[in-house]
Design a protein that fits this description.
Blueprint: H1 2-31, H2 33-36, H3 43-63, H4 66-102, H5 107-132, H6 141-148, H7 159-174, H8 184-206, H9 215-229, H10 232-242, H11 252-272, H12 297-328, H13 330-338, H14 340-354, H15 370-377, H16 383-388, H17 396-401, H18 408-426, H19 436-450, H20 458-468, H21 472-481, H22 487-502, H23 509-516, H24 525-528, H25 537-541, E1 548-549, H26 554-563, E2 568-572, E3 580-585
Parallel strand pairs: 1-2
Antiparallel strand pairs: 2-3
Helix pairs in contact: 4-5, 4-7, 4-8, 4-9, 4-11, 5-7, 5-14, 7-8, 8-9, 9-10, 9-11, 10-11, 10-21, 12-13, 12-18, 12-20, 12-22, 12-23, 18-19, 19-20, 20-21, 20-22, 21-22
Protein name: Chloride channel K
Keywords: CBS domain, Membrane, Repeat, Transmembrane, Transmembrane helix
GO molecular function, one term: voltage-gated chloride channel activity
Length: about 575
């Protein structure tokens, strides 16, 4: 018993000592808090800065929501990235042409300079993308469509992917007209990645919980196109048509606002860099406004649209065939799996060999950059009349088209045929690249060949619209050139080309990419099941005990609600023709 009492006394003493130590520690904490939090200096200053930031947030929110500042920032940053990429690519192309010109008189050195430069830079882009982030190759538009449909695609919005895609795309564009690829699709992906980070920042500032906010991503898809050309309206419409099943009505206003910020920033940066004199069209044209076209030329525009529609179907067939061939052929499959850099280098070397100015390149205006090619094709003057008039001096771009001494229209026809299959081959390259702008070139060439007076961009809008199954390229051509008087002929050609391209449930370019990559996407129900609108409701939902007609009155609705034991009541046209109109849930 004594030992038991002693043990109790020892335990009580230990508890008392522990309580005294806790009290002493609390007192010391109240007296000297900086000693315990010595790793957080300047506590008062930090509190003051935090208070000022909170006041700034309240002031900004009093004007409009934080989300709108995010939309403006998204447009501005995307335009800055687009301008920096264009500036870097222009300097690299200028250096390449300067070195090629310095080697004048040495055919072998010029050949090595012309072929090895794009081959090495594309091999680097492919190897860098494969080793750092394999998800950065390709266009990125099919992946964005998949993410906007609510399916999570891992690693496609990471910071590593954004850096890799930006650098790889810069290298691809620096290869020039040899590779003949664009940047529209990758910039949609870049803008989406940037929008995802800005969405997180806005939610952090607002103190909201992390949520899968798709509004910023939808806006980013429109900004990506608008920031490439400084064309906000056509950029929004293009993204609406490509992501048609994922756009809500409430997204239109943020899309136009952000795209306008991006387009204005792109034009201002061009002015400040002395690339332009004022806010003007990206491609200068001077078409007559008094009589832009004669009524009989409408038939020519319609014929051009039908030709572009037929050409688009042939191009899409070749594109799907080459993608299937590279995935079934053992040699291509092995190289595209293990030796992507080597494959890109060999293909680009072959393309550069064909475009060498002392060989077939003299018929392809290969010394011109992509922008110079499009500017010359959209020239309002007739090249044939210039070439026959010795007193009129041809511009540099026009001289490049006739440098071989052959007729200009022969060079244009050769350019069209060669670039068609070369572009199909370039689409197999495993590097970041866009495929919209190259198809924008095909039909200005057809327009130049077919036109009898100054027509312009009708073919460009028709062919690119037929390939992508969109109508916005017609508006894009108007915004790029500023020629509003030719909007109706361009729209007519684009409509007819789309009608021919969509016939017999033809797939668009991006639908083909989604199927090739086995990405989940939402196909058109009318294409997948044309008889769906006339399908009776009973075949889909089974026999329902309670149904409501579309013209039912309050008494019938009350009777159906009281007699129904199910959570939902289908609404049909009539009991005789049970086609679904809506389904109402009972709460």
């Amino acid at each position: 018993m004594k030992s038991f009492d002693k043990s109790l006394e020892i335990e009580t003493e230990e508890e008392g000592n522990a309580q005294k130590q806790e009290n002493n520690s609390e007192a010391s904490h109240n007296v000297t808090p900086l000693l315990l939090d010595s790793w957080k200096p300047y506590k008062g200053t930090r509190a003051n800065v935090k208070g000022q930031l909170l006041k700034l947030r309240d002031c900004l929110e009093s004007v409009c929501g934080i989300q709108w500042y995010g939309f403006a920032t998204l447009g501005i940053l995307t335009a800055v990235l687009s301008f920096l990429m264009d500036f870097s690519v222009a300097k690299l192309l200028q250096a390449h042409l300067w070195l090629y010109g310095k080697l004048e008189g040495h055919i072998l050195l010029q050949f090595l300079c012309w072929t090895l430069y794009p081959a090495c830079i594309c091999a680097f882009a492919s190897s860098f993308s494969h080793n750092i982030c394999p998800f950065s190759t390709g266009s990125g538009v099919p992946e964005v469509r998949t993410m906007l449909s609510g399916i999570e695609v891992p690693h496609y919005l990471s910071l590593t992917n954004m850096f890799t895609k930006f650098l790889g795309l810069t290298c691809t564009l620096a290869a020039g007209s040899t590779v003949f690829l664009g940047k529209v699709g990758p910039f949609v992906h870049l803008s989406t990645m940037l929008g995802a980070y800005l969405d997180r920042l806005c939610r952090l500032i607002q103190g909201k919980k992390k949520d899968a906010g798709t509004e910023m991503m939808v806006v980013a898809a429109a900004v990506g196109v608008a920031s490439c050309f400084g064309a906000p309206v056509s950029g929004v419409l293009f993204s609406v048509e490509v992501m048609s099943s994922h756009f809500a009505l409430r997204h239109y206003c943020p899309c136009f606002f952000s795209a306008a910020c991006g387009g204005l920033t792109f034009h201002l940066l061009s002015v400040w860099s002395r690339d332009g004199e004022t806010l003007q069209a990206l491609f200068k044209t001077n078409f007559p406004t008094a009589t832009p076209f004669f009524p009989l030329e409408i038939l020519l525009f319609a014929l051009l649209g039908l030709l572009c529609g037929a050409g688009s179907r042939f191009y899409l067939f070749c594109h799907r065939w080459i993608l299937k061939f590279t995935k079934t052929n053992r040699v291509f499959l092995t190289m595209l799996t293990t030796e992507k850099g080597l494959y890109s280098g060999l293909v680009v070397f072959f393309l550069a060999l064909l475009t060498f100015p002392h060989s077939a390149g003299q018929y392809l205006a290969s010394k011109c950059t992509t922008k110079q090619l499009l500017t010359s094709l959209l020239d309002s003057r007739q090249w044939s009349s210039q070439s026959h008039n010795a007193s009129v001096r041809l511009e540099l771009d026009s001289l490049e088209w006739s440098s071989s001494g052959a007729p200009i229209f022969l060079s244009l026809a050769f350019f069209l045929l060669m670039k068609m299959w070369m572009l199909v081959l370039a689409c197999t390259l495993p590097l970041p690249a866009g495929y919209f702008m190259p198809v924008f070139f095909g039909s200005p060439v057809k327009t130049e060949i077919l036109r009898v007076r100054h027509d312009l961009f009708h073919g460009a809008a028709a062919f690119s619209g037929a390939v992508t199954h969109t109508l916005s390229p017609a508006l894009l051509a108007v915004e790029l050139t500023g020629q509003v008087t030719h909007a109706v002929p361009a729209l007519l050609s684009t409509l007819l080309a789309n009608a021919l391209a969509r016939s017999r449930n033809g797939l668009s370019f991006y639908d083909g990419l989604s199927i090739s990559k086995k990405l989940p996407h939402l196909p058109s129900l009318k294409k997948a099941c044309p008889q769906l609108p006339s399908t009776p409701l009973g075949q889909v939902m089974g026999v329902k005990s309670v149904q409501l007609q579309k013209a039912a009155g309050p008494a019938e609705v009350q009777s159906a609600v009281s007699n129904s034991s199910e959570a939902q009541i289908p609404v049909v046209d009539s009991h005789g023709m049970q086609r679904a109109v809506d389904i109402h849930a009972l709460y």
